[in-house]
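To illustrate the input format used throughout this study, we show a single complete record. The first block contains the structure-token representation of the backbone; no residue identities are included at this stage. The design step must infer an amino acid for every position from geometry alone.
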């Protein structure tokens, strides 16, 4: 294989983003060298775990054993229904409390400056803090206040951050898109309303980003609910199945 810089871009998508694990598993099995990981929202969570050295085969087992209701610390909403402190502690554990400069693979995490309406790219400081900002679904999670900025979900400005990967020097971009499926979302709660609203907004800017991507992997996760973290095995398998047919093309691009 040649030495083109390969950027792996992991997009937003709540529980459907667990498919990212399956994609990474296959790339690892094929010894495809990842030079840069860029993640937004759930993609930031999985990308950070990978870059921090978390075992990608152990991670699904850990997720399957978790009680996600225990991670929800509800509060009287001023800026969000969920304080997010418990989830931040979990992210800290999964990323081994590392800073960006301690990671085995360079990582960039996307968040959104709510007041300025601009993308924020994290590449230094504590990884868990950046990831916690990146998953802050507006109105649901308490935003993260950092460096005089009020930070929310990275998906608001760049759901599939291929543009960022290109800016950071990636010559070949593999992007994993887990948001769009062929199934209509059932709206049963206020969280569903927020998730679907963001998804519809993101769809409008999706097409304009496609030209930045060399390989687009779209796991068949449209039938998996965006809150169904219990379906981790199905999501991981969908990621694997979507990646395998593209391996010859990936290897050709890198050679």
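Output of the design step:
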């Amino acid at each position: 294989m040649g030495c083109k810089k390969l950027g792996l871009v992991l997009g937003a998508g709540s529980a459907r983003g667990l498919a990212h694990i399956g994609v990474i598993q296959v790339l690892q099995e094929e010894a495809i060298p990842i030079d840069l990981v860029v993640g937004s929202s759930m993609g930031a969570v999985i990308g950070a775990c990978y870059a921090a050295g978390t075992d990608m085969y152990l991670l699904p087992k850990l997720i399957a054993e978790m009680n996600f209701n225990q991670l929800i610390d509800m509060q009287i909403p001023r800026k969000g229904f969920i304080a997010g402190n418990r989830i931040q502690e979990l992210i800290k554990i999964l990323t081994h409390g590392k800073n960006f400069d301690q990671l085995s693979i360079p990582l960039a995490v996307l968040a959104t400056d709510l007041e300025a309406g601009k993308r924020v790219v994290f590449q230094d400081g504590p990884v868990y803090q950046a990831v916690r900002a990146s998953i802050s679904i507006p109105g649901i999670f308490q935003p993260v206040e950092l460096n005089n900025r009020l930070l929310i979900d990275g998906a608001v400005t760049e759901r599939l951050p291929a543009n960022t990967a290109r800016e950071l020097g990636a010559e070949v971009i593999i992007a994993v898109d887990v948001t769009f499926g062929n199934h209509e979302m059932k709206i049963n709660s206020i969280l569903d309303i927020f998730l679907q609203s963001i998804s519809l907004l993101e769809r409008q800017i999706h097409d304009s980003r496609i030209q930045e991507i060399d390989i687009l992997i779209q796991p068949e996760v449209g039938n998996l609910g965006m809150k169904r973290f219990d379906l981790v095995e199905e999501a991981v398998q969908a990621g694997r199945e979507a990646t395998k047919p593209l391996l010859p093309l990936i290897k050709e691009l890198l050679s």
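Structural context for interpreting the output: The radius of gyration is 17 Å. Strands lie at 6-10, 36-40, 80-82, 107-113, 118-122, 139-141, 144-146, 149-153, 172-176, 215-217.
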